[in-house]
Amino acid sequence: MEYTIFGRTGLKVSRTGFGCIPIQRISYDESTALLKRAYEGGITLYDTAHGYTTSQDRIGTALSHVRDNLVLCTKSSAKTPEDLMAHLDNSLDKLRTDYVDIFQFHNPGFVPRPGGEDGLYDALVKAQSAGKVRFIGISQHKYKFALEAVQSGLYDSLQYPFSYLSSDEELELTNLCKSQGVGILGMKGLCGGILSNATAAFAFLRQYENIVPIWGIERMGDLEEFLSCEQNPPSLDEAMMQVIEKDRSELKGSFCRSCGYCLPCPAKIPLPQAARMSFLLGRTLKEKFLGEEWQQHMRNIDNCISCGSCTAKCPYELDVPKLIKHQQKLYFEGLGQ
User: Fold this and answer.
1) Least confident interval from 188-202, 233-247, 272-286, 311-325
2) pLDDT by residue (tens digit) across 219-278?
3) Cross-strand bridge partners of residue 157
């Protein structure tokens, strides 16, 4: 395992991080085994959030005995200082620790600043002074807010989607972060599962010495693949670039990254999957999505009431109702219906 110093924080972290959204979907025994194997394999940075249901508790259960060797990152989408502090205390309790290494604002629709009417940044500074938080970060899906946050000089870390589908403008953020001493937590390295070549994704992001990818890991086989990449780092050679360029040509333009901010849907449509169904069928185990259960989910798109809630919440400003109806058409055409 390679290690690096995370921006101006001085924290020594593994260059492969563990994104803890997916562990909510497996059993406690499975998540415990997965997290322990990750630690044994040298992974020291774990990213979670107050909003990730049981994720924090699972980390605390599996890894509290090695807390001093970990860098724990969590986040809150609280809108008030009172709720922010309640979320922080809840995180400390669930993670079984006295402090969080990096506490992040979770995808706010603005950049919190000292003296702001919202009071959020000032509240986190107080928590920092009290020893509950070591460093202050921000998680963002919108480029303009990510750029503003880095330029402000207020944040020790930025969590942002980085992959080989990122635009040149987005990738240029890495240079700005480096000049400002801002550490980067690279999320969505596989674009929510649309990218299936983990080795190519790993090799591409390894070019950027200040990005620590937080791979969302749910299965032991996926974890072993990333650990294997660490043991024998893949080369970004011509063959690898051909794989990347093929994906870029097929996936260019706006597409759903499966961030889930569009949910919940009042019509109970599984929006993150429905909005990218043609990609999932072409790039993953299609059998999972061809059975009667998913056919019914895709039929349920007819119940969309065009309320606009999903579009308003989408950080990529996608026209979600239009997108899912187009995907529904492609889906049933593919089934010959």
Assistant:
1) 272-286
2) 999 999 999 999 999 999 999 999 999 888 877 666 787 888 888 999 999 998 898 888
3) 137, 183
Question: Percent helix, strand and coil across the chain, each rounded to 5?
Answer: 50, 15, 35
Q: Is the dihedral of CA 291, 292, 297, 303 positive or negative?
A: positive
- The whole-number pLDDT of residue 337 equals 65
* Other CB atoms within 10 Å distance of the CB of residue 82: 11
Domain that holds residue 80: 3-244
Asked if residue 326 is part of any domain, the answer here is: yes
Determine the Cα–Cα distance for residues 280 and 286; give it in Å rounded to an integer. Answer: 7
Say what the pLDDT of residue 2 is: 95
Residue 256 lies in a domain: no
User: Residue 257: inside a domain, yes or no?
Assistant: no
Q: What is the pTM of this model?
A: 0.87
CATH number, domain containing residue 113: 3.20.20.100
Partners of 100 in the β-ladder: 133
- Residues 297, 234 share a domain: no
Residue 69 has pLDDT above 70, yes or no: yes
Max distance between CA atoms of the chain, in angstroms, equals 62
Query: Residue 82 has what pLDDT?
Result: 98
- Per the structure block, which two tokens stand in for 152? 């402000």
Residue 218 CB: number of other CB atoms within 10 A?
Answer: 17
> 314 is written with which tokens?
């989408």
The answer as to whether 71 is a domain residue is yes
In terms of domains, do 314 and 193 share one?
no
Q: Tell whether the model's pLDDT for residue 12 goes beyond 80.
A: yes
Domains of the chain: total: 2
Count Cβ atoms below 10 Å from residue 284 Cβ, excluding itself.
13
User: What residue type is 96 in one-letter code?
Assistant: R
| Rounded distance between C-alpha atoms, residue 158 and residue 296, angstroms | 39
Do 58 and 8 reside in the same domain of the chain? Answer: yes
What value does the mean pLDDT take over residues 175-185? 97
Cβ-in-10-Å burial (0-12, 13-18, 19+) of 160 comes to buried
Q: Which of 244, 279, 314 lies at the terminal end of a domain, its last residue? A: 244
Chosen domain end from 225, 244, 263: 244
